[in-house]
Protein 1
Amino acid sequence: MSIQFKTIRELREMLDKKVISSEELTSETHKLAEDLKDLNCFVTMNKDVSIEKSKLIDQADKSCFCLVRNSSGSKRFILH
Amino acid sequence: MSGIPLAQKDLFCTEGLRTTCSSKILSNFIPPYTATAVMKLESAGSITIGKTNMDEFAMGSSNETSYFGNVHNPWKKGYVPGGSSGGSAAAVAAGIVPAATGTDTGGSIRQPAAHCGITGIKPTYGRVSRWGMIAFASSLDQAGPLARSAEDCAILLNEMSGHDSKDTTSLDIESTDLLHTINQPIKGLKIGIVKEFSLGDLDSEVQNRFEDSKKLYETLGAEFVEISLPNISASVPTYYSIAPAECSSNLSRFDGVRFGHRAENTGDLNDLYIKSRSEGFGDEVKRRILIGTYALSAGYYDAYYKKAQQVRRLIKNDFELAFESIDLIMTPTSPGTAFAFGSKGAQNPIELYLEDLFTISSNLAGLPAISIPHGKVNSMPAGLQLIGNFLREDQILNAAHIFQQNSAFHLDKPSMEEF
């Protein structure tokens, strides 16, 4: 699924519904930036650090989800 | 914001990540700390994917002064994206990122947002910390977001705002959730139209778009009132006295010793300063340093800088008086739309300075202002500006959101076929 032209609200929904992981979203964003590099809108990319952070967020999301499910069985308290 | 990718204007210091201000003089600068505004966004879970191109030290309205080359407007190759936050605006308009940070000293968020068909807000001076932002004109600079909608701008601004003890101009105010105050009815909202702006002198298509937007607001229940800002015509000369003066002071720190580019084969210390700065700065930056140094020099300070500050107070007073009877002010964001590379300002820089005709006054007065897309002029996006009273971001974001709920201009996307 393309992430191009999505709003924050739409991306949030995709992440919450697990349509896409944070790592996939970050990688797709870097791919788009690379595909459109003729625009010259970036001076410096932060690829390695951003992908590392996205992996951590994915891991944290899984941890929070398990923690909440074990205690209340509700998804309402998933931390984002 | 957890997991949301963002781009940061290359004027915000980012620890361990090169920060150049699109200048040769900082082309190898890696900051040891992160700007508060970026830190707040990252603490909320957003992911910085890169740093965006811009006019050198934010001095420009077309992104043509960058050491790293021109940014193309996603709507038309070879056309400017506006400036100085042109890289941020282009990255959002091209759909690479959902939002990006920018800074606005005289229109540098709103004008590129208008030229690229997206939404951008300059907050009230002091709402967002300037700590870690490389200063251009300290009394005018303010950080803010560029995004695809007013709602997304509210999401970002919520995270970026807040008091910061590291910035002495940061406002110590109670935080407000700007997302909760959008989507309110605007029936009875009083919108001022500034008679001194002489909109009749603009391109007829720019006027038509403006009239169309006025009609839309009227159908939604807003009322229009003609207002007078008697000193507004002095905004551009006032700005171009104050901003260069502050820039000449702020940029004196870039001397080839402590930061960035250092010239080789130099003689004494003075020679090092002269050669490093001559090689490191571009023409527009040098022009503004010269103007500013002149305006601050002994014998001229009272005539230029002090006088400009006095006129600035008159402009601010005009706004204060106007806001006693209205809720917000509406203008076009820019006198025209995006133009071809090199077609403006090459012979006469004042041509480019006039790009900020409608945006500069809110920086001088420290007021919040937003630009939203409101259609096309000659197939390029045009922007509508809403200026709010001090700390009334809630009102302009609400008015912008309601406009976007009742129109589809913000949903337009460039084809990107040329790229």
Protein 2
Amino acid sequence: MSAELLDPEDVSPPIPGDLDDLEESHETDPSASDSPLITRSPTPPIANLDRPRRPPVYYATLPIWKPTYKSQFISSRGNEYFCEVDEEYLTDRFNLTGLNTEVPYYQYALDLVTDVFDLDADDDLREQIEKSARHLYGLVHARYIVTTRGLAKMVDKYKKGDFGKCPRVMCEGHPLLPMGQHDIPNLSTVRLYCAKCEDIYNPKSSRHAAIDGAYFGTSFHSMLFQVYPALAPEKSVRRYEPRIYGFRVHAAAALARWQDQYRDDMKTRLRDNGIDVKYAEESEEDDEEDDEEDEQIYDTKGDKTAGDAASARMELGR
Amino acid sequence: MSSSEGAPESWISSFCSLMGHEFFAEVSEDFIEDDFNLTGLQSQVPMYKEALEMILDVEPEDEDEEEEEEDEEEDEDEILGDEKPAGYRRAGDRRHARVASDLSVIESSAELLYGLIHQRYITSRPGIQQMLEKYEMQHFGVCPRVHCNGCKVLPVGRSDTPGQETVKLFCPSCQDLFTPPNSRFHSVDGAFFGTTFGCLFFMTFPDLDIGPRLDSSLSAMSPNRASSLASMNNQVSPDIPMPGQPAEINGVRTVNFCPGLGIGKVYESRIYGFRVSERSRSGPRMRWLRMKPTNIVELNEALRYEGLHGPADNDGDTEMGPSLGSAQNSAIAKRKKAPMRRRRLNPDQMSINGTEG
């Protein structure tokens, strides 16, 4: 904890006050540091209760405010996607299995992340250790966010829209989730997953574009919707139809018809397995009309028969 | 603008250099001066004449000329709260009544008028050429979709009527529409670009390369990324085209037809490396949106129909260019191809004969 690092010399001058006040602040402190809300609150996180209490010498009672590494990391610019990893999670060696080979200066980095770092290092070394600490935090973060508590924290952030909104017009600003395309670090940067169109996008800010995708991992967002299936949004069949002077463009429309066929095939396939797939538009009549319109266009070329649909299915089989 | 201190900047170029107006092309004055190009705009834009004068940097004209326009402008003046009976009106009075607040009305009218002219201009030959230059310089940004590999996008509107929706970006690689990332464009009207422009642009320049750009700075994180990616998607590599693909499909060159779609370009969610099953409650449901047939010939609906039902009446429309049928296309297709090739060659021979003889 931060207070252990504090030498008496670092401590601010004594502030006169009675002991009851101090006792109170000590009691509120542990809960504050555990809370998932990361705020730069002016209440100083002081020593934890487990430490043997010093005799009530005045100079040591109210140390200057020193934020934990984690809270500092979370609140710094560009790190808005991260959530705060629990202290207990971070200190459980089992959760860190294998990371010691991945992170240089592993022990120092871990000390820094858990706020027990007390090495007098020169600037160069210090910088490297800080870099390692960031890397370590990211890798632990990837493991943490697929745990129950981590998922809950990320769901909160998701609901607040901390990860941005889907750029696709038809998704109407659906909130995104961060993810990586690889679980191995240094392979790709962070991407954003939209649950509505089930596609992945690049973050629009260059600050976020520099974050390693492995700090979120490939499994997290899928895990989130497995654990919270109710959060999965209603899917939509709406799509952009390119038009020239009001007329649909043949190439795009032909692809759209093919895609509709593909979707219908998937629906029948799933219905055969007893799963009903619902799209947002299907409760309304609009979509039906659109489909009919498409079919009518088809009809002008000839009868659209069952054989046509069957052939499409056959071709898809390849 | 420091460069043009001597000659005052024209309204058009100052408008186009405003913050948030980076997508606009500078409409040539010749285009605006041609009345044909402005057909029908008079009824859409309040204070049309003043707005047009402002755009063209013309000093307000004399009274007698203005009087001709009076009829059209009367209703606008009433909107502005001029309570004098209509009979009283003299052009001179109206000029006195024109105050600073009027100027801002004209300014906004001018912007609306310019936008509507712009919508028409960028579908004209010089306009689309100008937009091509802007497109190639990546003025409009790139597609945010990961599998589009930073494909350049075009500004389009979803409506041709002003005041309905803001400008959107059209990606030719996934044929989808995106919101501009920068919020400064969230106040630009989409009608100033129009619904037609996006598609017309790519049909005007069919050879424009919209394929993946591997030099994309977004993907450059590690040198061995490309190789590792290739090993990760152990599916049919999408970059290697299937044999027997036609050069053109439905009027679009095959290489330029939605290169960002199809197997390998569809995101599959995985948990610990295992794909999430379709049968899962939160399994994939939107794969169709980013799908494209591996064999592009499947999109030739006329050919497919003929393969099933025999040749339809040849009314000319059903012939879809030199369609190199794959194995699935039966003898009918082959029979069709022979005369088609002959017919296609004929004009060439004719012209050769013409030049020689």
